[in-house]
Specification:
By secondary structure, the chain is an alpha+beta fold. It is built from 13 helices and 10 strands. The protein is elongated, with a radius of gyration of 23 Å.
């Protein structure tokens, strides 16, 4: 399911830039992929949600980066030593005005969660968007990774694995909701995450949707997703989905040509009795009575 919803970072960047980033053939722990230094040409367009967290370090170049992410507009000069990040699942409109010499880490989400399990003490967290952001420590880690790829030595893969562990630690400490007091107080899903989850619910209403399916949409564990969704919406995921299904059923019942059994199947109930019981609990009348009254 994850691959169906999100596109691979290297494929999406290839589409935007018009040339494939020079990803090394080795896949590191957690599905993480790396590049050495390469020239990222100017581009403009919509960046679809990607399956990995994309971190870029800029070594050379100028111009500006413009981004519109989750309704927020961000613009910052492209300066050597800066970091740009697009967290997994985020999308938006981007425009890069000048060629840049960069290195990329396409960080697997499972790897980030493994690090989070060690230091987040069970708290849910999300990475933050960054556009040409200054972080000397993170840039130094990215430069070490690029140097090792461009000039490999004995046991380079071991070196890279350890460097990525340090990178994950710095990301969580300085570039996640755990390091942002305002976002930490909110503790709920971001608006873009709620929108994506509820859109998935609507698009798959007739299917058997599990809690893990919903958690996968935003790349979280079931436990963290459940608490974060509740904090953001005021309802547990299952109850929100149930009420969404019943609202849709009410609309469909206004069309008297549709059999009630067909409506039950369309909104995710395999039997008319289960549909009728849930409908009565929420609306106060049976589907048949609701149709008659309407």
């Amino acid at each position: 399911m994850r691959n169906r919803l999100l596109t691979a970072a290297s494929d999406e960047l290839s589409r935007l830039v018009g040339v494939a980033p020079p990803v090394i053939p080795h896949v590191l722990r957690g599905g993480t992929r790396l590049t050495g230094r390469w020239t990222n040409q100017p581009y403009e367009g919509y960046v679809a949600p990607m399956n990995e967290h994309v971190i870029a370090a800029t070594f050379e170049g100028d111009g500006f980066a413009h981004a519109r992410i989750d309704g927020k507009r961000i613009a910052a000069p492209s300066t050597p030593g800066s970091i740009t990040m697009a967290p997994r699942g985020h999308d938006g409109d981007w425009r890069i005005t000048g060629p840049l010499v960069v290195t990329n880490v396409y960080l697997g989400h499972d790897r980030l969660l493994d690090c989070g399990d060690q230091i987040a003490e069970g708290r849910a967290f999300e990475l933050l968007d960054r556009v040409n952001y200054s972080d000397t420590k993170l840039f130094t880690i990215m430069r070490l990774i690029a140097d090792e790829i461009d000039n490999p030595e004995h046991h380079s893969l071991v070196f890279l694995e350890h460097a990525l562990d340090i990178l994950c630690l710095q990301l969580i400490r300085q570039h996640s909701t755990l390091g942002d007091p305002v976002r930490l107080m909110q503790r709920g899903l971001a608006r873009w995450q709620v929108n994506r989850v509820t859109a998935f619910m609507r698009e798959n209403m007739g299917s058997d949707i599990s809690l893990q399916d919903l958690a996968n949409v935003v790349g979280m564990s079931r436990f963290h997703f459940c608490s974060a969704f509740h904090a953001a919406t005021g309802s547990p995921p299952h109850e929100y989905l149930t009420r969404l299904r019943i609202r849709c059923a009410c609309q469909l019942l206004n069309d008297h040509r549709l059999p009630i059994q067909a409506i039950a199947l369309a909104v995710g109930y395999s039997t008319p009795s289960a549909f009728s019981a849930t409908f009565h609990r929420i609306v106060g009348v049976t589907p048949r009575q609701y149709r008659k009254d309407s």
